[in-house]
Fold:
Amino acid sequence: MSDTENPEQVLNEPDLSTEAAYANGFEDDDDEDAEPITAQKVLEILETAWTNEICAPELLQHQTDMLELMLSQVAHMEEQMKDLDKNDFRFVVHQMELERIRYIMASYLRCRLQKIETYTQHILNQEATRDAADKRLSPEEAKYAQDFASHVDEYFNKVATQYMPNQQRGEAEQRIVTPNLMSHVFLKANIAVSGVIVGVDDEEVDLAPGSQHIIPYQLVADLIHKNQAQLI
Amino acid sequence: MDPATIEFIGEKCMISIIPNFSNEPLHLIYGSVGPFRAGFPVFVPLWLAAHLRKQQKCRIVPPEWMELETLEEIKEEEKRSKFFTKMPSEHYMVVAQLVMSTAPDDVPRCEELRTVIKDIFDIRESKLRTSIDAFIKGEGTYAKLDNLTLLEMHSVRPILPYSLDHIARYQRMATASQRDTSMLGMNTTISGSGSGSGSMSNSYFTQ
Amino acid sequence: MNYFPNYYSIEDIFVTQEKVECKVNTRLQRMGFLDAGSETEHLEPGRNINLPLWYIKELKVNNAYFTIAVPEIYKNVHKAVCEAETTHIELGRLHPYFYEFGRYLTPYDRNHVIGRIIFETLRQRVRHLLDISKNDVGASKPEHRLDSIESRLHEAGVRTNTLYLNWLQMSGNNIRISELVEEHQKKRKRAERSDDEGGDDAGGDSPSRKKRSTM
Structure:
């Protein structure tokens, strides 16, 4: 679809271009047979990632792929909208939707940055033990975390630790701030999950689809990871 | 999650409007809406409905359940039931609040509805508090909250999960120390020395 | 974020500043200065002294030097805990860090009372906390009734309720500048005022930006 086309037409038929764009986007991936994914689906995935991230005590898997797809979709939309009159009904509505999507993405990324800044060293240590495929930080976030950690270290050194006896500097381990993985979270099961351990005494419960629970995060962390349940 | 965020999420709900203009369908990323034909109802997301209503480009058609008799029934059912009943919309408060504040003229008996909906919310909230009480007294760390809506959860957030976190922390500490010291007791009997291996390590205190 | 002690937590530092009473078990050479009431050079067995928690918590439970005395406050609430009548206790008056202080002392209590007491006390008082934080909006803060953990919970509850009431009136709907920026602006204003009075230029402050783009 070329940019010279009449914007009205383009705005009216984005599904084709969208699906094509996503199919293309996924061809670069390992999985060549990946089904094309719609913009709507990408948005749903991001919305879930956003609420999960807000509610989870620890940093979750990054969503770089989905963010990139959505950013290009947003850019694509804006490109198509640029010839419309700013007071045009269509312009205003599309603009409103894009603002909503931008808000979700920004809030999601900001929430991750907050966790990175709070648990920097803990996250970096964990990241170091993970395989490339399981990394939780995006490359950009990894760099940010590294820089942040070294800036904080440098700052502490400048203002305090350099004036302290050596043994006081060796508290690196003690200084690591870790999240409380036993924090209670609100959970909604996406599908039926059987045999979820819900207590210290190995008490088991089956979760019905759509059922809601309050439970320590650690007991359900892998359900979130596998998208069998989501945080609300 | 504050009420503004919950509202934001609830604004995705679809609601019927009657536009006073006509337009081709709009292909939003979230899905297509329209076509709009003046005088004919069409489903749009709540955020769009609210916007169009403020621009006086439509009337909002209140959802079926936003009707006095239905809501009175729901209220009675909620009073009768031991559990949380399923609400007609998982964002009933947000929908009601947004529709009634942007388009009070579109909702017959708006003020009465407002009262009933508030009543329903209050009944459910106090039910929530009672069940929390029972749940905490029962030494639970896990509870089922089926049919509870986000805004209702908000009424005990974050105070409830935070309290549970602390209770769990102290419970772990109490049990761990009991276990650890009884092991220490065994060690001392065997070795006959006060400085056994069962002593507290520093890492024990890190929580 | 919920309170979860860590190395940088000021609150945790305050807690570990608290004094703990302990009995000296063995003669400690040239440690007499630790005992404010004694003039002797050495610390003699049988003396009771107060030591800060940050020191105590590094000691093994069965260390040869000190036996830690369980503070009276925990013994005193024992009866109330057993009778499940803890809501009326003025916890903040008993100890500002009733729970966290108790948590640190738990392993040192050979009778396993403290751990149980702090756990039960909070468990019994949560409903009450939920209720009072819903009912007193903003204004009155029950100063002496609550310890620091409870006080934080209470604040969180009051905040929730305020947000909800504002939302119901659709008054909290306008996007506000974040508290941080607000604080910063207040400081700037203060700084500017003191400038007028001939104070030092606060310097360094970048011009405040009221709004930032979303991304």
